[in-house]
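Run: sequence + iron/sulfur cluster -> complex structure.
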Amino acid sequence: MESPDEDLISMYQKIKDIDDTATPAVKALFGMLPEELKGLMEELGQKSYRAGQLAEALYRQRVTGFEEMTALPVALREELEAQGYGVGMPELVQTARSVDGTERYLVRLADGETVETVWMPDGDGGERGDGSEAAAEEEAAEGLEGNAGPRRDMRNVGALERNGYSRATICISSQVGCAVNCQFCLTAKLGIKRNLTAGEIAGQVAAVLNRHGVKIGRDRINLVFMGMGEPFLNSIRKFAEEPLRPKLALSLNASNDVVREQVMPITRKWNIAALLEAVQTLPLGKREWVTFEYVLLGGINDQPEHAREVLELLQGKKAKVNLIVWNPGPGIDYHQPKPEDVAVFQKLLIDGGLPAYIRRPRGRDIYAACGQLKRTVESSPAAGAALVEIAPAASPRG
Ligand code: SF4
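>> structure
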């Protein structure tokens, strides 16, 4: 039998093969590390402090073209351009705006590939119960107690008045397409094309921050890797060793391996027991909970017996469950769960001692919600074209 590692290697090989064929229009400066910028400046016979100025322009000022790099001499900017360099920050080429304020962007990368990124003013409640500061704010705003006891309302009132949101969430993509093939997800229909580079991932954030005039240090932003692609695959154990570790949210989506294999075929390689074993290696802080995401699919995984199985699986663990009512998409043959089944499911978990929250769906009308990211617009605008704004559409289904 093929081992999980062999499977993973072939998945990565597939991604790498396509990577090698990518031909970026410019050599992107955005994404280069400080030492790489320093090396580049040395190559061009420049003083090393120029690398600092370049980094400042790219990552603090978030410039999008050489003309904005006013701290650098014109001759140096011309030299960089002549050598084929460009800022190379991903471009927002299309945006669809939901009635709830969520925006979904089609983001074009330097080699012409596109991914999707989502802006959610005030998030979707996904952090509730995970012990984070964002969770405390969410819980306080909703009058919930949270895992760490009663909280005072720490919402950023100034930001709320100024921006219309207290804290926004940006949902970013990590791959062009996805190889994991979850059956309820539109992104899976794209297959996998390639991994994004670190610069392309950070660039999505920078482009969205620019669009909303976000000032770092003043406005508050959450980042979630829940867009297109699976940033983890086999790396939970490595993640556990990181000194600076973001919160972990895992897609459970079923209460036993039989159902999970149907909705997430990757379960055949890494079953629920293997997943939970990897989670056990996480050194959790005092107020840290691991989030298990659970997409409720009508008649498939949303019945009381499933809730009881979830309780059994997570008993005694520092865990919380985010319940996500499945977001419909064309060509996907699942049904939304009945509201009463969702309520019973949540109650069973809570009564069993497991914190359970229902995620607020954001941007369903523009296909920006969980599992809905796919390039729904076939022809993306040509390079240099103005950003295309799309008005909210009627709800896609259900
Ligand atoms: S749900 Fe996530 S991991 Fe699964 S196919 Fe969609 S993008 Fe990939």
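>> summary
The chain has two domains: 25-86, 91-379. The pocket of iron/sulfur cluster is lined by residues 178, 180-182, 185, 187-188, 228-230, 371 (CB under 6 Å).
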